[in-house]
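User: Need the bound-state model for zinc ion:
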Amino acid sequence: MKRIKDEPYFTHSVYSAFTTGIQVKCPKCHGMGIVTADEGSAYFKCTNCGYQAEKERTVYRYDVHNQCKNCGRYYRVDIEETAKQHFSALHVKCPYCGTMMSGEVHKTAEAFSYAAEINKGKEPWFGLELWFLTSFQGKPIWAINREHLTYLIDYLSADMREKPMGRGKKTQSDHLPTFMKTAKNRERIVKLLEKMQEE
Ligand SMILES: [Zn+2]
Ligand SMILES: [Zn+2]
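Assistant: Bound-state model below.
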């Protein structure tokens, strides 16, 4: 009988970037790289070719806000196009009367991108593909890093699963989609995960 004690909800998640790191494919050499993060930035470092990158985690909002020279109303036009966000001034249209005029581009720090999630097997800051990524019946199966992969194998191959101690109601396994937990798929999914573990 194989038992496993489940882990707290955020043990293996995108937040692992702040502790153990997320294992990804290097965009230059396709070797294994690590994405880490701190308060201000996310970092990538390839363990194979040494390529490095850094990205600010703060999300900025760019807009032109001013009083319209024609209708006198105060307006704000958000600048969504990345290419335009680097200009110090832009011509924008007053949303009320349609008059074109030039205005200074303001940059405001909006928030840290806390809502970041793994999306389509990619980490949220650089969009790099996870190192441990495969698919089962067209659905992606992935692990954040080796620790997470080990957890998944242990969890899915256990006969008995216990909730961790503590008050938190949600546990790590609540992240798992139903198709992974379904009894009829479990064995085949564990095989796929074990194959990745050997790589
Ligand atoms: Zn590399
Ligand atoms: Zn106007």
